[in-house]
Amino acid sequence: MSEWLLVSYLGLILLLAILVMVYPLRQFKKTMLILSPMVMTAVVLAYWEWGSWFEWQQFVSQERNQQQIKQVLATIKSPDELIDKLKARLDDSPSSARGWYLLGRLYASQNRWPEANKAFSKAYQFQPKDEQTMVNFAESQLQLNGGKFNNSIRALCSNLLQANPQQPDALAMLAIDAYQSQNFQEAITYWQRLLALVPPKSRDALMIRKAISKAASQDSR
User: Fold this and answer.
1) Given Cys at both, which of 84, 95, 138, 174 links 156, Cβ 3.0 to 4.6 Å?
2) Contact, 133 vs 97, CB < 8 A?
3) Where are the transmembrane segments (predicted)?
4) pLDDT digits 0-9 by tens, 48-98
5) Sequence spans of domains, the chain
6) pLDDT beyond 60 at 34
7) Fold identical between 77-145 and 149-220?
8) Do the beta carbons of residue 133 and residue 124 sit within 8 Å?
9) Longest Cα–Cα distance in the chain
10) What is the pLDDT of residues 124-135, one digit of tens each?
């Protein structure tokens, strides 16, 4: 789509608008009957062409970004190298919540939980309401704490459920916390809420039902 054509459409709309303003409507009804469809056609064509051009520009930009990402990834030989590159980027943009989150994910994939926790803590500092950041920050704390819950982890899970009552990771973690604390009915409640979110015949549903059954048997003792 060439820019001169867009300008032509806009010029046509402007010309027709001037004609409408110059000539009184009552004296030139026939003229208006002709001009009105022309104005509408010009507007539609301009919108169509301009919108298509804008969408095409977005598509080209996205494709260019994807190609750049592929080129960068092609030069990376190991996860450690990717971590180093990301850390270098964060030196230039230390307030990038997304960058810290990705760094945390990379560390977590290598079971480097102290580093992951620090990265997620940074991401949480800059974006405290992001759901996935909160989930990963809580999970990294849980890993560092040997699978035991503390008030910080509980607070993160509670905040997650306040923002999204159906947040599955928070429901699962709070269920485990309640079970470990021998609050079996509370654990069952969380697992039942989680069960309602998964396909009934899925493997997850089977595991949740087993957990509920085990908690119920513990509660009856």
Assistant:
1) 138
2) yes
3) 6-25, 32-50
4) 444 544 444 455 455 565 565 455 555 566 778 889 989 999 999 999 999
5) 77-145, 149-220
6) no
7) yes
8) yes
9) 94
10) 999 999 999 999
User: Residue 194 in contact with residue 177, Cβ under 8 Å?
Assistant: no
CATH level 3 topology of 77-145: 1.25.40
- The top-level CATH class assigned to 149-220 is mainly alpha
Distance CA 69, CA 75 (A): 10
